[in-house]
Amino acid sequence: MKIEVLYFDGCPNYEPALERVRALLMEEGVSAQVSEVHVPDEAGARAVGFLGSPSIRVNGLDVEPAARSAREFGMMCRTYFVGGQREGLPSSEMIRRALREAHAAELAGRACCEPVQTTPRDGQKSRGTPLLMAGSVVAAIVASLCCILPIVFALTGFSILGASALFAAWRPYLLALTFGLLGVGYYFAYRPTVTDCAPGETCSIPSTRRSGRLALWLVTVAVILFAAFPFYSRVVADALLSDSSQGLAGRVIPPAPAVARATIVIEGMDCSACATAVENRLKAVAGVRKAIVSFEHKKAEIDYAPHSASMEQMEKAIQEAGYRVAKT
Fold first, then answer.
1. How far is the CA of 92 from the CAs of 16, 18, 56, 160, 173, in angstroms?
2. Confidence (pTM)
3. If I label 66, which of 19, 117, 284, 313 is the partner at 20 to 30 A Cα–Cα?
4. CA distance 9 to 53
5. What is the CATH number of domain 2-113?
6. Residue-wise pLDDT tens digits, 295-319
7. Residue 264: closest CA among 294, 298, 288, 299
């Protein structure tokens, strides 16, 4: 705020006017630059629009609203209409109103014209949100690879070579990363934002933001399905691998006159899908009549024809599936 006190030499009211301005600034708690403008002659009076001494302007406007359109410039003592009579000083209330008017105008100008610090707009933050959603899905898939890999390798015929055990060890950390990324995604999707729209207008919640929230919920469903895969992996494995034992064996085992039963303890199984993968490997061994692998009990119950299958062959099938036979 800029305040000017205009005067000419010899004006008796100049100093009292200056003191009154400074006292009111302290009372109002307003910071302002106070300039003393000396008017030397008639030419100077016309040049600065001098209405008489003392004159007080706040941000270029006279403290007396009625005098702002006046054009009677000259070297004269000025009077103000205060309380029904003329006085040589503007009243404190007149100056106070001018200070408050200028202060309010400055605040309004800042709100209108200065940059407003806002949260990133939808277009800006949406660039990061898809990455968060994609990252959470990938992390959820990797966290469940311990149970996905046995099915994949059983279908392809390869050995998992202990990979599922590695992913099982990292599963808690990967799940923490998964839901951490989702949490950050929800923060960006639902945190309050400052917009240029009035409440209730269409632009107050942009369509891109609404679609982003919908995508986030769909991703959340996918993440939960992947993260919970170990709990229903046996159903999926049974559905995908139910007919694979015959395909792997390549032939139907003829009836045998004698059947033996073997129990083999298996190490390294991390979920029920692992049990299904081992079970299908065992069924593919020629001479195996029946194989039931329990993930809960970590063992396989096998009915086989002794003349066609041996313990070495069955243990080798378990090892080829990527698991270990416990030594008894």
1. 11, 12, 12, 90, 70
2. 0.37
3. 19
4. 9
5. 3.40.30.10
6. 888 999 999 998 888 999 999 988 8
7. 299
Helix (DSSP H) and strand (DSSP E) numbers for the chain: 12, 10
CATH number of 238-325: 3.30.70.100
Residue 245 CA: distances (Å) to CA of 95, 249, 280, 286, 317: 98, 6, 5, 10, 12
Check if the beta carbon of residue 6 is closer than 8 Å to that of residue 39. yes
Domain residue extents for the chain: 2-113, 122-232, 238-325
Cβ proximity of 252 and 283 under 8 Å: no
**Could you report the per-residue pLDDT of 12-34, keeping only the tens digit for each?**
999 999 999 999 999 988 888 89
pLDDT digits (tens, 9 = 90+) for 94-131: 999 999 998 888 888 766 555 544 444 444 444 566 77
Mean pLDDT, the chain, rounded, equals 78
Question: Token digits for 153?
Answer: 């390798």
Tokens 């008894």 — which residue?
Answer: 328
What are the structure tokens assigned to 308, written together? Answer: 């066609």
